[in-house]
Design goal:
This protein is mostly helical. The radius of gyration is 16 Å and the shape is elongated. The chain has two domains: 30 residues; 34 residues, no CATH class. The mean pLDDT is 86.
């Protein structure tokens, strides 16, 4: 993959993320692992300590749809 193509893909992704944020508000979409995307969300414990730790907030996010 050429450098030009990578830059073009990154630009298209940035534009798409910007449009989604504009249409649906901040926090509607986030990039995985982006430190600026962290939000203060309370969690509902699952009862499985290892799963709560893996989820990162101590359970399933309250008020969010999860699969």
């Amino acid at each position: 993959m050429a450098v030009d193509e990578k830059k073009q893909r990154a630009d298209l992704l940035a534009k798409a993320l910007e449009q989604i944020t504009k249409d649906h508000g901040k926090g509607a979409i986030m990039r995985l692992g982006d430190p600026s995307a962290s939000m203060n969300v309370s969690g509902i414990p699952t009862g499985a300590l290892s799963l709560d730790i893996a989820l990162g907030i101590g359970g399933v996010p309250r008020g969010r749809i999860t699969e």
